[in-house]
Amino acid sequence: MVDPPGSDVRRAVPRTDVVLADPGLAEAIQRLGPALVKQAVQRAQHRCRTGEVAPESVAAAAREELPRSGTAMRRVLNATGVVVHTNLGRAPLSAAAVEALAVAAGATDVELDLASGRRGRRGRSALDALAAAVPEAGGVHVVNNGAAALALVACALAGPGRPDARDPVAQRRTEVVIARGELVEIGDGFRIPELLESVGATLREVGTTNRVHLADYAGAVGERTAFVLKVHPSNFVVSGFTSSVGLAELATLDAPLVVDIGSGLLAPHPRLPQEPSAAAALRAGADLVTASGDKLLGGPQCGLMLGDAELVERLRRHPFARALRVDKLTLAALEATLTGPVSPVAAALAASPEELCQRAEQICNAVADVVEAEVVISEAAVGGGGAPGVRLPSAAVALPVHLAGPLRVDPVLPIVGRVERGALLLDLVAVDPAEDEALVAALRRVVAAD
Ligand SMILES: *Cc1c(COP(=O)(O)O)cnc(C)c1O
Prior knowledge:
Elements: H1 16-20, H2 23-32, H3 34-49, H4 58-65, E1 77-78, H5 95-105, E2 112-113, E3 118-119, H6 124-133, E4 139-143, H7 146-158, H8 168-171, E5 175-179, E6 185-187, E7 190-191, H9 192-198, E8 202-206, H10 214-220, E9 225-231, H11 247-250, E10 257-262, H12 278-283, E11 288-292, E12 303-307, H13 309-317, H14 319-323, H15 328-339, H16 344-350, H17 353-367, E13 374-381, E14 391-400, H18 404-408, E15 415-416, E16 418-420, E17 423-427, H19 436-449
Parallel strand pairs: 1-15, 5-8, 5-9, 9-10, 10-11
Antiparallel strand pairs: 2-3, 4-12, 6-7, 11-12, 13-14, 14-17, 16-17
Helix pairs in contact: 2-3, 3-4, 5-15, 6-15, 17-19
Bound molecules: pyridoxal-5'-phosphate (PLP).
The site of pyridoxal-5'-phosphate has 11 residues, from helix 7 and strand 10.
C-alpha cells in the first residue's frame, strides 16, 4: 500500500541495514561491492519517500536500480552502418581477443621469463605476432594509440634533446618535411601538425593544398631534415586537380621516410584498394610505418610502429616511450587479434549483401506482428577509421523513426541505428549475426513499451 504523497512516510521507509539484508542485494554486494549497492538502495529509499515505491517493495526496487556491472559503460549494438564507429569505441574485439583479456587480467608473465625466472621482454608474444604478420618489418613496437606512435617518432627522430643525438649536426635535425595537403585533422580537434610541433619538431611544409611534387620535397630536404612524413588522408578525399608523391619516389630522398597509414591494415585489402597497408608501404620504401590498432586491424586501441630495426630500437629506447607504454590487456588482445580468427571488423568488411538482406528479412518477419518494418538496401561506410568515400553494399531494417530514441535507451541492449530519409535504419553490416535474436527481442520490448 503506497502512502499518498504529503503524508508522513519517512518513518515507513525501511532502514538501509534492513534493506541490505535482502539476499539478492547481499549477493550484489559480493559482485559489485558495497558502494554501488548502497547507492541503489538510497535511490529506492528516495522513491519510497516520494510515495512512488511501497516500503515493503524497497528491496525489490533497489535490485532494479542495481548497475549490471562495475562499469557504467553499456554494451551497445552498432546498427549505424559505420563499421569502425569512433563514438562506439571503434573496433569491437573478437571472441578470441576477449578471452585473451581475461587471461591477462590477473598476474601474468607479461614481463617475466617463466623458464629462467628472469625478467623477460615485455609483451614479447604480442610483438612476435606483429612481426610475423608483417615480415617486411625489421622491428616492431606498440604504444597506446596512433597519435602516441606518431608523437614518439617525432620525439625520438626530430625532438630536441634526443639522447642519441649528442653530436651537434644530428641535434639540428628537427624538421619534419610534410605536404600541405596532408596536414590532417583526425577528429575531436586532434591535428597531426599540432601534435608534431607539441613535441618540439618543426614543420617544413611543401607543395600546395591540392598538389605536391617530388621536387617540392627535394627542395626542402637538407641538413635540418629529421624525416619526411607521409600522412594518409584517412577521413577525407580530395578530387579534381590534385597530385601527390608516391612512396617509392619519396624513398629516393636523402632522409628517413615515415608513413602514417592510419587505419592499421597490415596487408592490402581487396575491398579497399585505395587504403594503404603496412606491408605495401614498407615494400615501397618506407623506413617506418605508424598505425592504429583499433581501426581496420580490428584490435584493441594501440599504436603500431613497424620498420627499420635500428629506428624502431631508437623509438623503444627513448625516455618518452615509457610514458606511452601499453598495458598487458592491450598486448593480450592485440596478440589474439593477430593470431586468431577473423575480427568482427574483417567480418563486416567481407559481409555479403545477399546474406545481409536475408538477415534483414528474417528480422522483419520476426517483428511484423508488432511494428511496420521493411528491408531496405543500404550503403554502409568503413568509418572515420579509414577508407573515406568507400560505400559498402549492405541491408537494413527500416522502422518508424520515433523508435530511434527508445531503442538507444533499451535497458537490456541499447541499439544505435541511423536516421535516413525520415526512417530509422538498423543496418546489419556491423551487427554480429549471433546478435540478431537479441535485436529482435529488444525491438519487441521497445515496441511493447511504446
Ligand atoms: C586515426 C589516425 C591517427 C590517430 O590514431 P589514434 O589511434 O586515433 O590515436 C593518426 N593518423 C591517421 C592518418 C589516422 O587515420
